């Protein structure tokens, strides 16, 4: 599932001592609790659609609730609730639908009518599933809970174009995942009952819900010794641990991830585009070297040629704003550097690399609409300081 690649800093809980946020000021707020599976449904929907900037999280301490929450926000006094366009909306199943339908981002429903019909059936069953599960804890747990997981196993057999209920990830997975995750842990721990045993589709579904690649952030100023000794002797980032091997070098990794994991292809089929992509990737080192060297002299004169190269390259294919028309691994390779040069040259040399280069300007504008990129952007203040020290010898 599409997940942000940078960990969001979660706001702290509001309790009975906290002031309310400035209610109905136009901000969209998700009143939530990080432990609540119902709220988690809406949290997943928000994150999947890349709405971290559009929907602000407001966590409520349910054990010590602020009085204003019931009085001014949501009279049922439960989470989740969404404040949007001057209204408050509750009920997690309604909210999955509401957020999916009223905000940008990838849709959580396929077009296929057979899948839509099955989605309705499964979502309608989710309340019964929960009721039966909770009552099973008081009775013959393994037998009663087992029947519910058999229901899911059978449902997962219906579409085989992916590991999820409708093949691809959808609202149905969002509705069930927070609960199945909790039941799996609880039944294993307390009843020693593995819900995936004898249920291969359920096992594959749970596997499919995991993030495919976990991020491990390494502090380069104070590197842990194990990183060099046990993992990656080059002692650099990035490196990828996959299938018992460690692979390094960002350009090799872009290619490796693109070819070894599911998801949209980052290299078009068109042979002309493939040849051009190789040419551009091979030239990246030269661009970097020339721009970095220019920082010690006059970048406006010395680095202009590199930005002209990018401007001309962007003219080559006109079926989209990116280097190969559509977003490709050339963009993944270049954009982190274009972004940094843009910020640094503007800030330190008052040089706007997009001025007189309309393709480059449009490129950066379009790039900023792509969540997968936006979530990885650098901190401009840190960058300026870092580049000054590293390339200009100042501190
Ligand atoms: N049917 C509601 C259930 C929400 C719910 O029960 N939330 C719990 C936290 S997990 C809650 O707010 N409990 C507080 C209470 O019941 O007073 C939904 O789907 O949104």
TrEMBL record:
Keywords: Detoxification
InterPro entries recorded: Glutathione-S-Trfase_C_sf (IPR036282), Glutathione_S-Trfase (IPR040079), Glutathione_S-Trfase_N (IPR004045), GSTL1/2/3 (IPR044629), Thioredoxin-like_sf (IPR036249)
GO terms of biological process kind: response to toxic substance
Protein family: Belongs to the GST superfamily. Lambda family.
Lineage top rank: taxon: Eukaryota
CDD domains: GST_C_Lambda
Region (Disordered), start-end ranges: 1-20
EC nos: 2.5.1.18
Identification of the protein by name: glutathione transferase
Reactions mediated catalytically: RX + glutathione = an S-substituted glutathione + a halide anion + H(+)
Residue span(s) of domain GST N-terminal: 26-107, 184-265
GO molecular function term, any single one: glutathione transferase activity
Organism per entry: Buddleja alternifolia
Coiled-coil regions listed in the entry: none
């Amino acid at each position: 599932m599409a997940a942000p690649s940078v960990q969001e800093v979660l706001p702290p809980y509001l309790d009975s001592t906290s002031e309310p946020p400035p209610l109905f000021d136009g901000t969209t707020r998700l009143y939530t609790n990080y432990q609540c599976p119902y709220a988690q449904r809406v949290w997943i929907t928000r994150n999947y659609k890349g709405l971290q900037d559009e929907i602000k999280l407001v966590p409520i301490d349910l054990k010590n609730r602020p009085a204003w929450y019931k009085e001014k926000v949501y009279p049922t006094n439960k989470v989740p609730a969404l404040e949007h366009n001057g209204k408050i909306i509750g009920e997690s199943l309604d909210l999955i639908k509401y957020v999916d339908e009223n905000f940008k981002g990838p849709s959580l429903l396929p077009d296929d009518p057979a899948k839509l019909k099955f989605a309705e059936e499964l979502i309608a069953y989710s309340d019964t599933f929960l009721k039966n599960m909770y009552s099973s804890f008081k009775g013959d747990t393994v037998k009663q809970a087992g029947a519910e997981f058999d229901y899911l196993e059978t449902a997962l057999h219906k579409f085989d174009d992916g590991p999820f209920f409708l093949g691809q990830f959808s609202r149905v997975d969002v509705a069930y995942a927070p609960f199945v995750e909790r039941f799996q842990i609880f039944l294993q721990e307390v009843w020693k009952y593995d819900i995936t045993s004898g249920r291969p589709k359920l096992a594959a579904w749970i596997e499919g819900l995991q993030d495919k690649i976990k991020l491990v952030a390494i502090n380069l100023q104070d590197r842990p010794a194990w990183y060099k000794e046990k993992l990656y002797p080059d002692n650099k980032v990035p490196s990828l641990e996959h299938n018992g091997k460690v692979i390094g070098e960002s350009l090799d990794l872009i290619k490796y991830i693109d070819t070894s994991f599911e998801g949209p292809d980052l290299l078009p089929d068109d042979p002309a585009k493939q040849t051009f992509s190789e040419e551009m990737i091979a030239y990246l080192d030269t661009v970097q070297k020339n721009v970095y060297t220019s920082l010690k002299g006059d970048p406006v004169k010395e680095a202009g040629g590199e930005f002209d190269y990018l401007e001309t390259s962007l003219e080559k294919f006109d079926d989209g704003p990116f280097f190969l028309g559509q977003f490709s691994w050339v963009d993944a390779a270049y954009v982190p550097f274009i972004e940094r040069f843009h910020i640094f040259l503007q800030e330190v040399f008052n040089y706007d690399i997009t001025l007189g280069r309309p393709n480059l300007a449009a490129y950066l504008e379009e790039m900023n609409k792509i969540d997968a990129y936006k979530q990885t952007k650098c901190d401009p203040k840190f960058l300026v300081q870092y580049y000054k020290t590293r390339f200009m010898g100042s501190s």
